[in-house]
Amino acid sequence: MKSTLKKLCSEQPWQWHRYINALLFAYREVPQESTGFSPFELMYGRTVRGPMQILKELWTKDVDTPEVKNSYQYVFELREKLEETLEIARENLRKSQDSGKHYYDRKAVNRKFTPGNKVLILLPTDHNKLLMQWKGPYEVEAVVGINDYKVNVSKKSKIYHANLLKLYVERPPEAVQVAASVEEPAELDEFDGEELLELGDLHKKEGVDDVKLGPDLTEDQQKELHDFMGDFTHRFSDVPGSTSLVEHEVHLTSDVPVRSKPYPIPFQARESLKKDIDSMLKMGVIRESSSPYSSPVVVVKKKDGTNRVCIDFRKVNKITVFDPEPMPTAADLFRRLTGSKIFSKIDLSKGYWQIPVREEDIPKTAFATPDGTYECLRMPFGMVNSGATLKRGMRKMLKGMKNVVYYWDDLLVHTETFAEHLETLRELFSRLTKANLTVRPSKCILGTDNVDFIGHSLKEGQKGLLLENVTKILNAPRPETKKQVRSFLGLAGYYREFIPNFAAITAPLSDMTRKGCPNRILWGPAQENAYQTVRDLMSRDPVLRLPDTAKEFILRTDASDEGIGAMLMQEHGGKPFPVSYASKKLSGAEKNYSTMEKECLAIVWGIKKFELYLQGVKFVLQTDHKPLTYLNSAKFVNNRIMRWVMYLQNFDMRVESIKGSDNVGADFLSRVCD
Description:
33% of the residues lie in helices and 20% in strands. It contains 20 helices and 24 strands. The protein folds into five domains: 19-103, no CATH class; 118-167, SH3 type barrels; 193-460, HIV Type 1 Reverse Transcriptase, subunit A, domain 1 (HIV Type 1 Reverse Transcriptase, Chain A, domain 1, Roll), CATH 3.10.10; 463-540, 2-Layer Sandwich (Alpha-Beta Plaits), CATH 3.30.70.270; 547-671, Nucleotidyltransferase, domain 5. The strands form five sheets. A five-stranded antiparallel beta sheet has the order 4-3-2-1-5, with no helix packed on it. A five-stranded mixed beta sheet has the order 6-15-10-14-13, with helices on one face. The chain is of the alpha+beta class. The two termini are 64 Å apart. α19 (639-648) links the parallel β23 (618-623) and β24.
């Protein structure tokens, strides 16, 4: 009917409504797909004489003359014909139903639950009864029928059909207490090219001779480090070990195997792929598989011209239960490094490959190659919870150990004295030995006073920019498309805490990425000025002090007609040094605030920005707006300021008034928007 109406509307766009009756008349002789007969035939027991029948008679000149019958004969034959037609229609309908059921049941799974199982129930959402969502988990109390179950929902027993239930997969609890934290986006040096290798040569090529030592170490200190490395020679290897600390588990929301069509592999890459497969088979990293799961592999070119082969687990990841393993933030890691003078950076050898996959989950890691299907015995890169499993293993290994921080598979040992440093290294490598983990020698540096960690350069309590990343920013070509602008802003934005008012400076560039702007950007003086300003500020090698929670913090704020700024500082040697910068452009409504309101807004916003450092400690608030020094004693009629003052009562601060000429940093942050 829909296709017929569509055709009618296309042929008669202005008069289609006049042909509705004729269309319905012609539609009477259209057979129903399941029964094979039109409803008219099943109702009246005779063939419809519609437009098609009339057209046939006109073309063939063959017109059936109706046979004259008495009433009894007509009714008797009509009844027989209706019975025969009904029987044929029922048979056709049964075949159609069997066919439909066959195709529907190809992916159907019989759901069975037992009392005590935890399940999710498909229920209406809280905001719209027409929308459904999985809620739970709830516990199954009893089996009522073949497909019905009694479930305890909010302390009430209700009966649900199996179609409305789904098994809830619960991650095994850990007997460890951790503090929840928000996981930050991937850092610049989170993974390097080597870590993305899924397949590669596993023969040992590196040893203790490839480990770098700090350039400022004395001969005695170097000898002690060489003796230390000699005691743990077996830990320094580019061949990954196999730990028993943790196993990688893959919990899926569906029991239906996921299969993906293999991607075509270029002929020139197949030989190297086969060598990698053979090498991993010998090392026990993979094995041949007959798993119903199958993920494709993809081959990409590395910078050195060789091939990188990775497994595409996206379909498996879509049905994987997410593992919310917490990860320390970069700010928390840098806070722990305060006061440290000697560092050692240690990188695990292909950290993912050192963790085995749980036996029952190995088939879920299967991947297809031109030479067959294989499955991973070690944790592969690319699975949604691989990073969480690695973090959990690192947390277990380092539990209770001081002077060691980790980020993914990078470990950083930090101490004040060399003796303490050597003792910490021995304790760490004893734990690595117990866990059967290896570290990559060429990426290890021991006993240095200057180290690169999480995209920053650390030295003597200071945090600076990583030269390698700054060079990339300075050598980046001028963006021409939206994608290139986003890439440039993403790279430069990682160091926004070093650049006063980064958001306002880069506003002309970020505005070009808005929806509705052309893909090829229109480069003008404003964009050129923003581009060059960012490059210039990066090239000046700005330095921040690592926060020392034992010292008092100083917060300076200021406001202008266009923006507000804040600068967190601490005194070192009797002089204040910046810990971090922050700034914000005012919205249209905020620009209408009075001077007092803007200055107070700058204070509230600055405290919220650095609340992690200021909550629960005494700090100094410095402002060049003298009336704000009476925040704790003055009576304000303005309701907005009163609400802000009540919020500030939660903090133990001493307000100081300074000259505007002394408030250079925060003043610049607020006025650079002008």
